[in-house]
Amino acid sequence: LSPALPALGGEKQSLAPSGAAGDTAQPGDPRCPTIISRRQWGARPPRIRVPLKTPVSFVIIHHTEGNRCTSQASCSREVKGIQNYHMNTQRWPDIGYNFLIGGDGRVYEGRGWRTVGAHAYGWSHRSLGFSFLGNFSNRIPSAAALNAAKSLIQCAVKRGFLKRSYTLKGHRNMNPTSCPGNALYRVISKWPRFKP
């Protein structure tokens, strides 16, 4: 999908039971954006699952550098392709991100709230990794996607998965990469609690 994806870095994983448990928002939860569950987008089961000790202190923003998507069907196809790349080529136990944000304004459950991701080498065990679907080096995500990401951060705080005193960072602040793209990075650098 992207030559930059290997820079995400697979974290060394210890064995734990696989399976995601109740990571999506309750229907009609006003604190959270619409979250498309793994079942809804057709996820493969994870090979292993490492529990994430929450609340974590960091949110790390990424972009996938792949195709943009504007509907639940097209975004689901993108997320499935990313999961296949991460599992088949990278040999990770699952898709690397905790959540992915589509141009349609929906959030797609990756590893979810309770599982350590493989999205920022050395940092995944103490952060949530949120990735925008698409390449945002030269253009910014849709307003719907940006609003969904802001809502997802607030949802994480309100549901107790992210500390109220969290720090927001771009992937480039943690690892040597251009992620999340220059245009998106300029946007998130103006968001509350951002620190380079």
Automatic annotation (TrEMBL):
The keyword Ribosomal protein does not apply. Belongs to the N-acetylmuramoyl-L-alanine amidase 2 family. Residues 1-31 are annotated as: Disordered. Keywords: Disulfide bond, Immunity, Innate immunity, Signal. Gene3D superfamilies: Peptidoglycan recognition protein-like. Residues 33-175 form the Peptidoglycan recognition protein family domain. InterPro entries: Amidase/PGRP_sf, Amidase_domain, Peptidoglycan_recognition, PGRP, PGRP_domain_met/bac. The keyword Signal applies. This is Peptidoglycan-recognition protein. Residues 45-181 form the N-acetylmuramoyl-L-alanine amidase domain. One of its GO terms (molecular function) is N-acetylmuramoyl-L-alanine amidase activity. GO terms for biological process: innate immune response; peptidoglycan catabolic process. Disulfide bonds join 32-155, 69-75. Innate immunity protein that plays several important functions in antimicrobial and antitumor defense systems.
